[in-house]
């Protein structure tokens, strides 16, 4: 499943790279980076990911790491609020396709556990100055759940060469269906002998703190680093699959912008 997913991503990147070379109206940003992040699962090792970074824009169409499978800009050039809609792939499950470590948890609670699948989601995004809102809804008939992310990032420092240091935070709301899809225990996954007792998670609200550094070396090359921490709602912490009250993430990317 993972090799097929990333194979399709690589094929799309090659196709879009060819389009960029053939048409100067495309805007392209590409590079690579590293992400290290914690997960809420019991005794789960820290996950490390090295992956390519690419974003492409053509007119109102956008795709890539920042934009998901694709986005279409709904707002006009002079609108004070930026609006876009599109499709994305969401997978925060125990055995996620975004977990590159071969080693999962050794805790007995996951003995015989069948992890749910990732989902294709419809997504609506809105941004006004430093305030952003994103709402995603499962359209692949897995959880039928909804997630809403509200964040505010304020630039604490802006240098003459484009250097920026931003800090902010926000809230992440998970509908009951999605929260229970990830952290609930029911059906064939019930195994009291391993501590996997029946559990139904409720709707959850997690709070986040984020810091970001953007450092341009010149007009084309730049470094972007981000660190964030997310406090988990009590209904998530109470799941027999979870042993943490919060999770952290660090990402560093070097990117090249085609002028």
From TrEMBL:
Subcellular location, principal: membrane
Residues annotated as signal peptide: 1-22
Keyword Nuclease on entry: no
Transmembrane segments: none
Family to which the UniProt record says this protein belongs: Belongs to the MipA/OmpV family.
Organism: Bowmanella yangjiangensis
UniProt keyword annotation of Membrane present: yes
InterPro entries, A to Z: MipA
Coiled-coil ranges from the UniProt annotation: none
Keyword entries, A-Z: Cell outer membrane, Membrane, Signal
Taxonomy, superkingdom: Bacteria
Protein name, entry field: MipA/OmpV family protein
Pfam families with a match to the protein in the record: MipA
Annotated localization: Cell outer membrane
